[in-house]
Write a structure and sequence with these properties.
Blueprint: H1 10-44, H2 52-78, H3 82-114, H4 120-141, H5 146-162, H6 174-282, E1 284-290, E2 295-298, E3 301-305, H7 312-316, H8 322-336, E4 343-350, E5 355-367, E6 374-383, H9 385-403, E7 407-412, E8 417-420, H10 422-428, H11 449-465, E9 467-475, E10 481-492, E11 498-507, H12 509-523, H13 533-546, E12 554-561, H14 564-571, H15 573-590, E13 596-601, E14 604-610, H16 618-628, E15 633-635, E16 638-640, E17 644-651, H17 658-674, E18 680-682, H18 685-706, E19 710-719, E20 724-736, E21 740-742, H19 748-751, H20 756-777, E22 784-789, H21 791-795, H22 799-809, E23 817-822, H23 830-842, E24 846-852, H24 858-864, E25 869-872, H25 874-878, H26 883-898, E26 902-906, H27 911-919, E27 924-926, H28 936-945
Parallel strand pairs: 17-18, 20-22, 22-23, 23-24, 24-25, 25-26, 26-27
Antiparallel strand pairs: 1-2, 1-6, 2-3, 4-5, 5-6, 7-8, 7-11, 9-10, 10-11, 12-14, 12-17, 13-14, 15-16, 19-20, 19-27, 20-21
Length: 950
């Protein structure tokens, strides 16, 4: 029986816990007895009235405790089962718990209710001592069995937990909750202590089982050892007796046998060694076939049963490979029928569980004189596995040489052709009779002196070094010209005399052409046939390095086609590629003396021009380029006039470094594009400083977003219908760490040129929705917040996701959001914008057309897009004193009313302006006449205490 560590039954744990609880329950009884004595003494010496009921309950507890001690004593004398002990202990714990419960009820409930002169404070500390002592004693002595603990504790605490005292006006209402909390904590501690006792009990039981298991094994081992010792002594006694009786006879017999065995072994070892040496050196084995007895022996060892009858094929199939069996039987039949004097066959024979190629030779040495049937056949078997593999390897190599796409030749010691494989003839375009017997280079056309010199060098190197390896172009007498890689080696004998040469020729013609093609593709643009950016950088760098001392001045001109993106969208990719080819051709025509005209990417070209007194100045050259593009491009049955922007940087005036001069030319080009195109800009240091400042501003603004330096201000919009705040416009500000609070004019124009405007827009959306949630939580009047949306936000495709994310995050309905969109946002991608605006409307988000009246197609926008609000630009408001502007304002308001749109006038600052819009029934007013943009906290105060102007 094996010992299993985890094989512990629950009843074993229970028995251990009951056994451990025997002495501890007595200690628990004594602890409760002491507490009862303390309570009796305390009440009898405190001169309190109405203590008879207390004495009665304590007397009942004394009886219960003494009865419990007596019960435990009787059970221990009679030695009853653990099951009986377990039941008795449960009864004892429950009795003690009930008795303590009666005592707690008398102290905690009965006494304060019937004795009004006794305050709850007078007896609370006695109840606390009783409960704490009982709980501590229960944790200490009853947690081996958790049921004992709860049988004692639950009844004791029942009055305190579920029944409250009558007179408790002076007691904190938290008292009952505190007592309940203490009780729960004590119970959790008891459970934890019980778990520890259980784990300890399992370990003790495991140790006892392991000790018992080891003792049983030790006892069995001891008994087995004793039995073996007895038998060993008996065997030794018998052996000793036999040895004494037969010692002389055995010695004589052994001596004789040893002598004969020694002589026989010597002879056998000699013969075996000779046979083994012969077999190892020649790989030859002897075999004998006793046909009459159907036995086949190999090296005098029985091999298999082999009959010369109809079953010979199946019998031979066990030792001869199935593919060679037919030929073996054929050769055997020829020998048996005396068509051949010997049996000879090459086949695969099973040897040591594998097929081995062997050569079988045999002869019939005995025949039956009556019918001339063979009786015995003797033969040898030679292992030809290595020879067969070498032969296969040679044949395989020969096949490879015949079909490989490499020319293989063999030359004699005088470099005359001996042999060549078919590919060599195909490669050279020659026939075999034009090659064999000729000298190495007699089959080539070496009419050039340089080629003859190369041939002489190769021949000389072969004779001197016995090897040549190289690549060169060769023209054969067939007229074929190819690039070849040649590797010729000498084959020498043991005396280092050259016997012949073996050469390998590879045709590199296709490879060279492909290499040239790849080189072209790597350095030139396929569309324009101009050097690409990589080749431009490489050649310019080499030119500046190699001619640094002689160069006086070089102009680097960066050229870009204006409005190329729109052109590409209009023309399509195929026509755009054709246009780029025409542009490249015209640039080459306009710059015949340029060091290089290169195509960089998309619409950008570069021209490198070395300036001197014999050539036009850089101003004249750039003017010629601008003028040259005034002629229309004619292709695809259409004419197209292009304009270009040029940026110029001069070497060494503007920079000496290769990268820096390119950087300056590109910067000048971007300046020309910013001026509207069709112009030339020369690099200037002050412009570069502006660019550097923009870079620094970009870095600072990115850090501002990261460090939460941006702050949203809110300017109220007042409804003229009810004189209430209808909404706020969210306006961004920048709390710059050095420059203070910055208005949008200082950073938004630059942010719109980068992706930062989208990041700022996302920040404003979240801050605005979060502010709406704050106002709604404070139960302030319901208002909306209007948020300005930049065109970049519309076209990047993230606006819907951003709105959905924050509306869901802060649980805000879309009807509280207004998006202000400028007319410039609607110029491109009309179908895309229509779909996007409709999806916004599906989310109940209001749409406002900002800066209305300043664009080109205002009326079209109002009819094509689902706007709810039009916002009159502040330009019209500030100039409303002019009659023409008043006419525009009247028209806008009248049109908006006719289309049932909400009309918002921004920038209202004077009472006169306000009265004008009131007379025209404008819907909403925004401007300093009501309030400037406010911080979050000030906007909250404004919303709480807004009082409209009369």
């Amino acid at each position: 029986m094996s010992f299993k560590k985890n094989d512990i039954q629950p009843n074993e744990i229970t028995a251990h816990q009951v056994e451990q609880s025997s002495n501890l329950i007595i200690s628990f009884i004594y602890s409760i007895l002491i507490v009862n004595i303390f309570i009796v003494i305390n009440f009898n010496f405190s001169s309190l009235e109405s203590i008879g009921y207390i004495n009665l309950t304590t007397a009942l507890n004394f009886i219960i405790l003494l009865g419990a001690l007596l019960t435990i004593k009787i059970l221990s004398i009679q030695k009853v089962t653990l099951k009986t002990f377990n039941f008795a202990y449960k009864c004892i714990c429950l009795s003690i718990g009930i008795g303590l419960s009666i005592l707690v009820y008398a102290l905690y409930i009965y006494l304060p209710f019937h004795s009004y002169h006794i305050q709850f404070d007078d007896i609370f500390y006695i109840v606390a001592i009783l409960l704490v002592t009982t709980l501590l004693a229960s944790i200490s002595y009853l947690t081996h069995r958790l049921v004992y603990f709860f049988l004692a504790v639950l009844p004791t605490c029942f009055p305190v937990l579920l029944i409250q005292p009558i007179q408790q006006h002076s007691i904190s209402p938290v008292l009952s909750v505190s007592l309940n909390f203490i009780f729960i904590v004590v119970c959790l501690c008891a459970i934890s202590v019980n778990r520890s006792h259980t784990i300890s009990a399992k370990k003790v039981i495991q140790q006892k089982k392991l000790a018992s298991y080891n003792q049983n094994k030790l006892r069995k081992s001891h008994n087995l050892t004793q039995d073996l010792t007895i038998k060993l002594n008996e065997s030794q006694k018998i052996e000793h007796e036999l040895t004494l009786k037969n010692e002389d006879l055995i010695n004589q017999y052994i001596h004789g046998v040893q002598k004969h065995v020694y002589e026989y072994n010597n002879l056998f070892e000699k013969q075996s060694s000779i046979i083994e040496l012969a077999n190892r050196t020649s790989y030859i084995h002897t075999w004998e076939w006793n046909i009459r007895e159907s036995k086949l022996e190999v090296n005098n060892h029985f091999f298999t049963n082999l009959q010369n009858d109809a079953t010979i094929s199946s019998n031979l199939g066990k030792i001869i490979h199935s593919n060679d069996l037919k030929n073996c039987l054929k050769q055997l039949t020829k020998h048996f029928t005396k068509k051949r004097d010997f049996f000879e066959c090459q086949c695969r024979v099973r040897y040591e569980d594998q097929w081995v190629w062997g050569s079988l030779v045999g002869k019939v040495i005995r025949v039956d004189p009556r019918n001339e049937e063979p009786i015995t056949m003797l033969g040898i078997f030679k292992n030809i596995e290595k020879e067969k593999k070498n032969q296969d390897r040679i044949e395989h190599s020969s096949q490879i040489l015949q079909h490989i796409d490499v020319g293989i030749i063999t030359l004699d010691a005088e470099l005359n052709y001996i042999d060549a494989n078919p590919f060599f003839y195909t490669m050279t375009g020659l026939e075999k009779n034009q090659v064999i017997g000729k000298k190495l280079f007699d089959i080539t056309d070496d009419y050039h002196a340089q080629q003859r010199s190369l041939h002489y060098s190769i021949t000389d190197q072969l004779f001197k070094k016995s090897e040549f390896k190289g690549e060169f172009e060769e023209t054969f007498i067939s007229g074929r010209k190819i690039s070849i890689r040649c590797h010729i080696n000498a084959v020498k004998d043991h005396y280092q005399n050259t016997l012949q040469y073996v050469g390998i020729f590879s045709d590199l013609t296709d490879y060279k052409q492909q290499e040239q093609r790849l080189d072209y593709l790597e350095n030139y643009d396929v569309t324009t046939q101009l050097p690409n950016r990589f080749y431009y950088n490489y050649k310019l760098y080499q030119f500046l390095i190699n001619n640094r001392e002689t160069i006086k001045k070089i102009a680097i001109i960066y050229l870009s086609i204006d409005r190329f993106s729109s052109l590409q969208e209009f023309l399509g990719n195929k026509t755009t590629s054709e246009l780029l080819r025409h542009v490249a051709k015209r640039l080459r025509q306009l710059n015949p003396h340029a060091f290089m005209v290169a195509y960089l990417n998309r619409e950008d070209f570069a021209i490198v021009y070395e300036l001197n007194h014999l050539r036009p100045s850089i101003q004249e050259l750039c003017g010629q380029i601008i003028t040259g593009f005034t002629d229309p491009f004619k292709f695809a049955d259409q004419e197209l006039i292009l304009t270009v922007s040029l940026g110029v940087a001069l070497y060494p005036e503007h920079a000496l470094d290769f990268d820096q001069i390119n950087y300056h030319a590109n910067h000048a080009l971007r300046q020309a594009q910013n001026l509207g195109g069709n112009t030339v800009q020369y690099y200037a240091q002050d412009k570069d400083n502006t660019y550097t400042q923009n870079i620094n501003l970009e870095n600072e603004l990115r850090q501002a977003i990261k460090n939460c330096e941006l702050e949203v201000y809110y300017q109220p919009k007042i409804s003229l219908k009810n004189n209430k705040v209808s909404s706020f416009e969210a306006l961004i500000r920048w709390n710059h760490p050095r420059r203070g609070l910055l208005a949008p004019v200082h950073f938004l124009p630059f942010a719109k040129q980068t992706s930062l405007i989208s990041d700022i827009g996302r920040y404003v959306i979240e801050a605005s929705i979060k502010q709406l949630k704050s106002w709604q939580s404070q139960q302030l009047p319901e208002v909306a917040i209007s948020i300005n949306v930049d065109p970049q936000q519309l076209y990047r495709g993230q606006l819907l996701h951003t709105l959905d994310t924050f509306l869901k995050k802060y649980d805000i309905h879309g009807k509280y959001i207004e998006l202000e969109i400028t007319e410039s946002s609607l110029i491109e991608k009309t179908l895309y914008v229509q779909s996007l605006l409709q999806q916004l409307k599906n989310r109940h988000i209001a749409l406002s057309l900002d800066d209305f009246g300043t664009g080109y197609s205002s009326l079209a926008y109002l009819t094509e897009f689902p706007f709810d609000i039009i916002k009159i630009d502040r330009y019209f408001v500030q100039n409303m004193h002019e009659k023409s502007q008043q006419a525009v304002l009247n028209a806008i308001i009248a049109m908006g009313k006719a289309m049932e749109l909400t009309i918002v006038a921004e920038g209202v600052e004077t009472q006169e302006q306000l009265e004008f819009f009131k007379q025209k029934n404008c819907d909403v007013i925004q401007g300093y006449i009501y309030s400037k943009p406010l911080s979050s906290s000030n906007a909250t105060v404004y919303l709480k205490h807004f009082s409209p102007k009369q």
